[in-house]
Amino acid sequence: MQLGTTSNGARRAVALLSARPIAAELGVCRTCAQSGLLNIKRQRGYATEAANAAAATSSTTTATATDLPPVPPASFSTGSTQEGEGVAPLTVGTKTHGIKAGLLISRTPRITRDLTSFEKAFFLYQRRLNERLALPFTKYFYYKKGTPQDQDYKRKIAERLTPSRDIGRYSGYGKEAWNDELLVGAPESETAHQIEALVKDAQKSDSTVAENDGMKSENEEDEIPKPLSRVTEADLKKDYRSLDRELQRTLYLVFKIKKGDKEFWHLPSVDIVPGETLKAGAERALISWAGPNVNTWIVGNHPIGHRIYTARNPRVRQQALEKGEKYGYKEFFLKGRILAGQVDLTLAKPELGITDFRWLTKEELGAVVGAGYWSNIKNMLGDR
């Protein structure tokens, strides 16, 4: 459908297209633009329009913005100049606060988290439900009658009533098939119980085959590989410097700094120098604090959080202003991941006063840093 030239929609479209550029450039409303009060041409980037505008300006006597004197270009200087010339040297930050680049290095979880009691019961219920819905197992298709494998299968079915090995004593067929939910406190849903059932089933299978072949092993338990523990040796020894602890949690790198008689925990950070980006400063902070043996990946160029520190004592702030010094700083944190390596304090800069480092979880980190520092960085940390 094509609109006529006299339609209301066409008139509104023409008015909008003709008035919006003027309103956007001059900051006036659409009504004033449509009323004809603004008799000003829009400047375009075409050579013909520029020539016409120059001719019109020379022939008119009305004072316009072109009568104003040109603004001289700004000049910058990054070093010292002669007296009365140039500007101040290039600095980072404001007159009262400097700029720092910090780095939040983390080690991601290596294993899945522990399941809740509800999740354990739900997954076991799903496996038992599968036994009810699946077709019966055709044993004679896989095991020939009278063979050791057939005898082993019959023995296991008599014990657990189902081919599945880790759902407990349950049958998906019969009058009690509906009773597939566990009672409160039943061990069948626990991971340790299921691992024990799987290992026991594998041991009995190997034992049956070995007896029929006349080659029974002396150490049958050692022949079945078992899953590794979710609790490592570093967890038992409480080795906070190890990366092999708390495998299901995210660990964050934090350093212990000693300045005079005070000791505190802090994330790595450095002062930004003129011309340096936040990412370059964060990389320099990592090498200065942890040494060059840490292989990391900085996720992006933008910070994930920041904190502002200002001296609390008014006298200190006043003295800093009189001396032209800064009494605070703004610290921006970037996110990084450790890929390989480990911190080496012997290669860190001694003037930083670093005495220790730790890989801590979110809760452990909140227990060692100060309350004010923790309130600024806690929202950057993951819950897991």
UniProtKB/TrEMBL annotation:
InterPro entries for this protein: Ribosomal_mL46 (IPR040008), Ribosomal_mL46_N (IPR021757), Ribosomal_mL46_NUDIX (IPR033650)
Recorded GO CC terms: mitochondrial inner membrane; mitochondrial large ribosomal subunit
Protein family membership: Belongs to the mitochondrion-specific ribosomal protein mL46 family.
Protein name (Swiss-Prot/TrEMBL): Large ribosomal subunit protein mL46
Subcellular location: Mitochondrion
Signal peptide: none
Domain Large ribosomal subunit protein mL46 N-terminal: 98-235
Source organism: Ascosphaera apis ARSEF 7405
GO terms assigned for molecular function: structural constituent of ribosome
Biased composition (Low complexity): 57-66
CDD domains, alphabetized: NUDIX_MRP_L46
The UniProt record lists the keyword Ribonucleoprotein: yes
Keywords: Mitochondrion, Ribonucleoprotein, Ribosomal protein, Transit peptide
